[in-house]
Amino acid sequence: MTRNAEAALLVGAAIVAAFGVALVNLSRGEGIDAQVALTFVVIVASFGGFHLAVRQWSPEASPYLLPLAAMLTAVGFVEVYRLDRERASLQRWWILIAAVLAVSLLLAIRRTGLAPLRRYRYVFLLSGLLLLLLPLLPTDWGFPVRGFEQNGSRLWIRFEAGPLRLQFQPGELAKLVLATFLASYLSERQAVLGVQSRPLGRYRLPELRQLAPLVIAWAASFVVLVYQRDLGASMLLFALFIAMLYAATGRVVYLTSGGFLFGAGAFAAWLSFTHVQRRVSAWLDPFADFSDTGYQIAQSLFAFGSGSLSGSGLGLGTPDRIPNASTDFIFAAVGEELGLAGSVAVIATFALLVAVGFGISIRSRDTFRKLLAGGLAFVLGLQTFLIIGGVMRLLPLTGITLPFMSYGGSSLVANFLLLALLARISHEERA
Amino acid sequence: MNQPLRRLAAALFVAFAVLILDVTYLQVIAGPRYRDDDRNPRVIASRTGKERGLILSADEQVLAESIPDPNDPQRFSRSYPEGELYAHLVGFSSLNFGDDGLELVYAGDLRSKRDLTMSDLLSALLGGDLRPKSIQLTIDHRLQQVVHSALGDQRGSVVAIRPDTGEVLAMVSNPSFDPNLFLGGEAIATRELLLADPSEPLANRSTNRTYPPGSTFKVLVTAAAIESGTAGPDTLLPDPLELELPGTIEVIRNFDRQTCGVGTEVSLQTAFRRSCNTAFGWLGLQLGAEALTVEAEAFGFNQVTPFEIPILNSFFPQPSQFSNDLPAVAQSAIGQRDVRATPFEMALVAAAIANDGIIMQPMLVSHIFDAEGKVISETEPELLQRATSPSTAAIISDLMERVVASGTGTRATVPNVRVAGKTGTAETGIGPPHVWFIGFAPVEQPTIALAVLVESGGEAGENATGGSVAAPIAQEILAYWVQNNG
What we know:
Chain A is mainly α.
C-alpha cells in the first residue's frame, strides 16, 4: 500500500466522522452545522499531520497503522459527540494535542532513532513507577500537582495553576514507559533469564534470580490494585510484564508461574477488598443487585440487546442511560447504535491493528525493537480485550479505557504515542 | 523469539474471536431478552416519549393528545385535557404502569411505528404509514359532562347507549381520578393513594362492578311472562300484604309494607308501575327458575359482551343452582339474592326494549383516522342478539312509559317528551340500598337508552329509592339529550 493510499484512507476516516456527526445532528432535528466541518478538519489535521511526520521522518514505516487507528478514533469520536457535546469538543482538542505529541516524538527521535529509549532504561523504569504512584500524592497540599479520586479509584492527578485545571491519568502512560524499559532490560538479560534451570525429578524449577523480577512486578501491580483500587491498570501491567518475559525467553514457566501468581493475587484481592467483590458479584449476576452494583453492567447489556443486528442508528438509541458511557462503556454505545454490524467492525479493526503491531514485531531483527513492538501490540490488544469483555460481561469489569475510542486525553495521548513508536520501529527495520 | 510472539498474537486473536462470538450472542441470540426486559429504560421510553395519536369524542373534543417537548421535538408527553371525566374509558399510557383503557386496546393504532424495527421498515418500503393513527369515540362530550354533573359527588355509574346503533353516548364512573397524575414523577405515590382510597376511584363501576339489579330486573320477568303466555299486561295477579315463600318462614313484602292495589288482586300493568314485590315474587314462582334463566341469558346475563373495554359478566343463577329453593327463585325474580348486573348490562336491557327487542353490538370507537385525517376504518352498527320479540318489547315499552307517567319513576318526567323507565332499589343487607333507574326516550323513536346506578343511596342514604335518587339524574340526562338531539 502506498503512502498516498494511506492518506486517502485517513481522509476517508475524517469523512466517516463528519457524516457521523451530521447524522447525530439530524437525529436531534438539528441541521448540518459547524460541528460537521470542525470534526472533519480536526481529524484531517491531526492524522494528516501525523501522516506527514511519518512521511518526513519515518518514511519506511508501515502504512497500515494510521488508517486503522484513524477509523477507530473517528467512530469513537462520533459516539462521544452523540453522548456529550461538551466532552466532544474537549475530545477534539485532545486528538489534536495527542497528534502534536506523537509528531513531536517522531521529530525528537528522527536522527537518533530508538537508541536513547534503549539506553536510558532505568530512567524509564523510575519514571514509569513514578507515574503509577503520582495519584497517591495528597489531594490537599500546597503543591499544584495533586492526586485525586474519581469513581472510587485513585488514578488521577490534577494540575492546578490559577484558573487552569488539567486532569491526567498517568497510569495510561505508564504502560508505554514500562514496555520500553522491559524491552531494553530483557533484550540484554535474555540469555540469563532464559537459561535452563536445575532439574527436580521431571520438573525444572526456575532459579530464584529468575523469579525475582516476576515477584517485583507482581508486588508493584498489587500496590496499584490496593492503593489506587485500579483493577485494570494492575492486571494490564502484570500481564504485560509476563508476556514480555515470555516473549524474550520463550519459557512457558513464566506464563504458568505468572498465571499462578495472578490467580493467587486475584483470589487474595477478592477476599480482602470490597471493591473487588462488588465487581465480581456484578459480573456473576448483575441482576441480583440491579439497582446498585449491577446497574451499570445491566444497562450495558440492555444497550447491546436493544442494538440487535443493525442498531438503532446514530443518535437514535439511548446509550446515555449507561453510567460512564463515553469512557469505559463506549463500546456498549457502539453496540446499541450501530448494532452487531458496528460492534463486529470495531472488534475486527482492533484485531487488524494488533496484527499489524505483531507483524512489525515479528519482522524486526533487532531484539529491543522486536520486544518493544511485541509488548506494545500485546498491551493494546489486551486492553481492548479486557474492556470490551468487561462491558459485555464476558470478564469482570476492570475500568480501563478503550484505546482511541473512549473519551479522555490521557488515553488518547498514550495510544497516539504508542502508534508513533510502532511507526518508528517499522521504519527502522526497513530503512 | 518469534515463536512466543506468534503464540501471544494467536492468544489475542483467539480472545478477539471470543469477543466476536460473545457480541453476536449478546446482540442477536440473547438480545431480544435484554431488549424486552421490563427494567430496560428503552422499553419504558418506547411507551412514552413517542408520539401517539389523538383520541377524540364524537363531537371532536380532544380527550388525549401528544404534546411535543419544547426542547426536543422528537419527544412527546401525553396529556388528557379532560382529566378525570374519561379516566376509566380512555385510560392512560403511563411510564410506570403501562397502558390501560382504550390507550391499551388501541395501542397498536395509536402508537407511532417509527421505531425502526425491521418489519416496520419493510411496511414503510411497501408504502405503509408509520405515523400514529387517531381514534374517534361515539361518546358525546357534552352529554358526558351533563352526566358527570348530574351524578355529582355520589358514587355510582351511568351508561347511555343509542339503542338503534349500539353507540355508547356516555359512560361515567364516579369517583374517578386524574390520569395525568399517572404520567409524571408522582405516579407511584398517586397510585398508592388511589389504591388505599375506600371509595375505590380506580374501579370502573360501569363495566367492572356488579350490583343486585333490584326491581329493574322486573323488566326481564315481565318479558318472560309475556313470551311464555303466562301473563299479559291486564292479567290479574294476587296482591297479598306478604307473599309467603314455600317451605320457609321468609316472606316478600312490598317496599312500603302495604298491599299494592286494594289487597285482593292487581293487574300486571299496575304491579309493574308500582313495582310490587309480592306480585312479581309470585309471578317468578309461576314462571320457574328455568324460564327466568333463559330470559336473563337472552338479555345478556351470564355471557361475555364483546366490547372495546372488557365487561364483567352479569350473573343469574342456573336452574340447577336453585335446586328447588323456591324462596330463592322468588327473590331472584325481584332482582335480589344472587342476581348481579353491571350498569352496562342494565343499559343494554333498556336499549333492547327501546330497539324492538334487539340488542345492538355496543361500540365505543366510531372511526380510525390516519395521520392525514383520512378515515381508514369506520365501525358499522351490528346486531348482537335478539333479547325478546318486537311485540313483547312494545308491551314492556308501554309499561315502562306508565312507570314514568304515574308510577315509581315520575321524577324522570321530561316535559313534552315521552320517557319510559323502571326504577330499582336493591337491598344490600348492609347499609343503604343501591338505587337504579333504567329507561329510554323519546318512546316513539328512542335515541337514548340508559342505566343510572347510585351506590348506597347516594346523598339520600337510608331513605333513597330508585325513584327519588336515580330517576332525577336520568331526567337531567334525558332532557338534555332529547332537547339537543331528539
